């Protein structure tokens, strides 16, 4: 029988308790015949399939409890893991400060495994206790990718798993899967959606604050200028190509411009 996937990866979710690891799992499509289960040992398992550069990558995602008495589970499951996702809550400073303990545990039992730092509950950014720049600096210092996600809004969850899968496949010799996924910010996504449904002249009539209207106007002008530049460049290239073709025809057949029979 033909396989339902091209690559199989085992991913481990680690982090303190109550950072929302179960929320992340529940937002993913279940690609297995069995439903996600929770065993008495403190682990939850889910299988999902993502599409990465035309290849089907099946992920076996294991969620370990954040309690200290389950550290032995991490030691046993991290040995066969191809990717690690470290989860913290952006509204809980303690969960971010505890990442060093989890990182030390992972590096001890799974050295060199690709890791992605995930800040959960972005929809509660008004209660933020961990700055985005602080998380990015921590991830860069420990050679990790960094994402802020929201299971409630389904934002950046699949992108974070795609990035981890790409890093894991590249580590295992799949150099051709090396295109990074450009993840748009939530602000840019909103601006793109608004500008698609309106134009620069009707932005002032929107019930939005003046600062947001100013940003939308500049975004719309920049986007339209970029599009016009591309269209103008394409037109000029086509025109030059047509002129060059006509000139080469005249030179080849020794025909003067005034004697061309239309």
Beta-strand percentage?
Answer: 15-25%
CATH level 1 class label of the largest domain: Alpha Beta
> Distance between the terminal alpha carbons, to the nearest Å?
64 Å
Q: Residue-averaged pLDDT, rounded?
A: 76
State the CATH architecture of the largest domain: 3-Layer(aba) Sandwich
Strand order of the largest sheet: 2-3-4-1-5-6-7
Which class best fits the helix and strand makeup? alpha/beta
Number of helices: 8
Q: How many domain units?
A: 2
Q: Quote the CATH topology of the largest domain.
A: Rossmann fold
**What is the CATH superfamily label of the largest domain?**
P-loop containing nucleotide triphosphate hydrolases
InterPro entries: P-loop_NTPase, Small_GTP-bd, Small_GTPase, Small_GTPase_Rab, SOCS_box, SOCS_box-like_dom_sf
GO biological process, one term: exocytosis
Domain SOCS box: 173-222
Keywords: GTP-binding, Lipoprotein, Magnesium, Metal-binding, Nucleotide-binding, Palmitate, Prenylation
